[in-house]
Amino acid sequence: MSDLDSQSTLRRLFDAAVASALPKRLVDHLPPPTKGRTVVVGAGKAAAAMARELERAWPGELSGVVATRYGHAVATERIAVLEAAHPVPDKAGCAAAQRILEAVSGLTADDLVICLLSGGGSALLTLPADGVSLADKQEVSRQLLACGAGIDEMNAVRKHLSAIKGGRLALACAPAKLVTLAISDVVGDDPAVIASGPTEADPSTYADARAVVAKYGLTLPPAATALLAAEPDETPAPGDARLAHAEYRLIATPQLALRAAAAEAKRLGLNVLLLGDSIEGEAREAAKVHAGIARQIAAHGSPVARPALILSGGETTVTLKGKGRGGRNSEFLLSLAIALNGLPGVYALAADTDGIDGSEDNAGAFISPDTLARAAALGVDAGARLADNDGYGFFAALGDLLVTGPTHTNVNDFRAILLL
């Protein structure tokens, strides 16, 4: 199989994973109409596409507003779509969050709120708590993104600096019935973590948020530090009776997406090793582990024989030390290429299923046995690029970026290593 055919196969598997998690799945999870009003709110990279599918399927009156990332909007008729920044929030995100709170105010027990959530909702649904400014939240976001914190740690801080996250949106919807339809982009599919859990009870506390700040040695703005110390209004904890009106339904998950890719791989005659949807840790270190497994298969035909496919998902992290461009998937692949060192017959794709790797315009990239040789011929030093966190620049120089544009879903990272 040629490099081109290998890339086509890997892209086919990625497309199968994405297709299994598209917003149209929500039609199988809709609640029955109510005799009162139906209001739709939500946030995330898939929120606009989810709103469009809901409009098409809903039989009665409908209104509302959702927030999505710039460039991820789609045409809707009854639900307003607002665009905002991700991963660092902006004024548009604050305005969208305020519009969402206004949309659910004054409802009755006869009314229904449908909340549409997906990855990216944490940044897009931004409403700083009293005493904290948008500039403060932006600085906190930058520090959290750069320090290598896990998504649950990041969200513990975000929730306690917010007037809408960590179950606070659910409180604002009462006494109306609230049904959340969510596409999971987090390890473990925990509703309290997806989009910082605006409609779900929050098991984290102010103390947990302070512990994250201390663990990573963050220097937060004074107003944020003061709020975390003062503990003015704890988020609703699990079992809080004020959330009795709220229900949560997952419509797509990373594991389902990996299973769809595995099924497609088996149809192609590949022996599949599915490592699961919960791979975390530093992207460059996770790559070394994947490379070790690939070497085991290549040398010994175990735990599966060639032709083989290693699949994994989850959400790795990158601790920024350099000044290069690139997200966690390009960093994973660059580290993987170095660890494999041209191992014959091994090809790989790593990409974010939302179509955006970090803050760049690519979903991910490809590697092949000649990746390092081609880079060297161009004078591109793989080790130096990795040290500079410049996976994007490395793969752009080779023409090996995967650019899909917004996929209108988000079920976390997708990694596929093909051994022929």
From TrEMBL:
> Highest taxon of the source?
Bacteria
Q: Does the keyword Protein biosynthesis apply?
A: no
**MOFRL-associated domain segment(s):** 10-228
Gene3D superfamilies from the UniProt entry:
Glycerate kinase, MOFRL-like N-terminal domain, MOFRL domain
**Residues of the MOFRL domain:** 309-413
Per its UniProt record, what Pfam families does this chain match? DUF4147, MOFRL
Q: Which Gene Ontology terms cover its molecular function?
A: kinase activity
Q: Which UniProt keywords apply?
A: Kinase, Transferase
State the name under which the record lists this protein: Glycerate kinase
- What is the organism of origin for this protein? Chromobacterium subtsugae
